[in-house]
Amino acid sequence: MYYLTKLIVTCALIVAVSEVAKRSSLVAAVLASLPIVSVLAIIWLYLDTQDVDKVAGLARSIFWLVIPSLLLFISLPILLRSGVNFYASLSVSIGLTLAGYFLMVLVLQKLGVQL
Fold first, then answer.
1. Residue 68, number of CB atoms within 10 A of its CB
2. Domain that holds residue 104
3. CA quadruple 79, 80, 83, 84: dihedral positive or negative?
4. Is the residue at 96 inside a domain?
5. Which of 13, 61, 73, 89 could bridge to 115 as Cys pair (CB 3.0-4.6 Å)?
6. pLDDT surpasses 80 at 67
């Protein structure tokens, strides 16, 4: 039952953002930009493990990986406004984001930061 509750709450939030976006992109953007997924993941992890070190580690890793995730939100509108097909734009943006994650992890490893 607990797993089902986690699934329903998480899915409901994603559906809510997509439904709100039909009416107001601003309100949807505010909802989507809140770290709701991160907060839920932190809550679920704590409830599952009661391990504050794991929670702290997750929060720290999320912090570092937010930076390369911004590549998606920069590249997607640029590509779409340039006339690139939606799915191609999304694919390229996701690819750039993944490359950004990879580079960020490499840089952090070189700096001795553990994720």
1. 19
2. 52-115
3. positive
4. yes
5. 61
6. yes
